[in-house]
Write a structure and sequence with these properties.
The complex is a heterodimer of chains A (75) and B (156). Chain A contains two helices and four strands; from the N terminus they run E-H-E-H-E-E. With 75 residues, chain A is an alpha+beta fold. Chain A has a single domain, classed as Translation Initiation Factor IF3 (2-Layer Sandwich), CATH 3.30.110. With 156 residues, chain B is an alpha/beta fold. In chain B, strands 4-3-2-1-5 form a five-stranded parallel β-sheet. In chain B, helix 1 runs parallel beside helix 4. The chains are: A alpha+beta (75), B alpha/beta (156). Chains A and B meet through helix 1 and helix 2 of A and helix 1 and helix 4 of B.
């Protein structure tokens, strides 16, 4: 999937993947896609909850070799 | 859509109990909430510029997981608190959990408002110069002014 920016959240625990995803989105423009790579199991549910509450769109969530890859489209 | 609001009262100053207010405040702010944290009694310790003295004690904390069974008589020995704090900090770091200072900075960056309880600042004769700059001072009525209108209000 195409993306405009990547945020490496490997090794970070709650709430950092969410809080820093929000920070990474700040300087992006509407419609751009942020790729987030996380190793925090909790971030699967949290990233969906973040999208749900902020109006950003979680395009996809994939698990690859114990890592979680999210594509978040900015509102 | 009106902005959601969350208020937290932080009353504890130990390493374990310092995390929930900062985690919830920074997360709520990331979700677009307008957040205020009211620090009172021992929670005021969390406003110090230097948080390195925030400790955890295994004493009177039977739920704290210990590597080996630790009788209370042993827990009360000198140095046990420092040791428990050091071990907890190592564990937090190993698991990628942010330090208290980092979480607090993230809160401030996201415009979380910190209010220190004026009465307890006076009661414990705290020196305001030891606190971080981004703190307002007020009382219970100040807190109610914001808390009365919140969607989430927590006492930690």
């Amino acid at each position: 999937m195409n993306f405009d920016k990547e945020f490496n959240a490997r090794g970070l625990s709650c709430p950092l993947p969410i809080v820093k995803t929000k920070k990474a989105l700040v300087d992006m423009t509407s419609g751009q896609v942020l790729k987030v790579i996380s190793t925090d199991t909790g971030s699967v549910k949290d990233m969906a909850a973040f999208a749900d509450q902020t109006g950003n769109t979680l395009l996809s969530t994939v698990e690859e070799n114990g890592e979680f890859i999210f594509y978040m489209k900015k509102k | 859509m009106t902005t959601k609001k969350m208020a937290i009262i932080a009353t504890k100053g130990t390493l374990d109990m310092a995390y929930p207010p900062f985690i919830l405040a920074s997360t709520a702010a990331a979700l677009g909430y307008d957040v205020q944290v009211f620090f009172t009694f021992y929670g005021l310790q969390l406003l110090r510029k230097d948080l390195s003295n925030v400790m955890i004690s295994p004493l009177a904390n039977p739920a704290m997981p210990m590597p080996i069974p630790m009788p209370v008589m042993v827990q009360m020995l000198p140095g046990m608190e420092s040791m428990a704090t050091m071990m907890m900090k190592q564990k937090l770091k190993k698991h990628g959990v942010a330090s208290l200072t980092e979480l607090r900075d993230l809160c401030l960056e996201a415009d979380v408002k910190f209010i220190a309880c004026q009465m307890t600042v006076d009661l414990f004769e705290f020196d305001k110069s030891e606190f971080i700059d981004n703190v307002e001072y007020g009382g219970a009525a100040t807190f109610m002014g914001f808390a009365g209108d919140t969607d989430i209000c927590l006492f930690v």
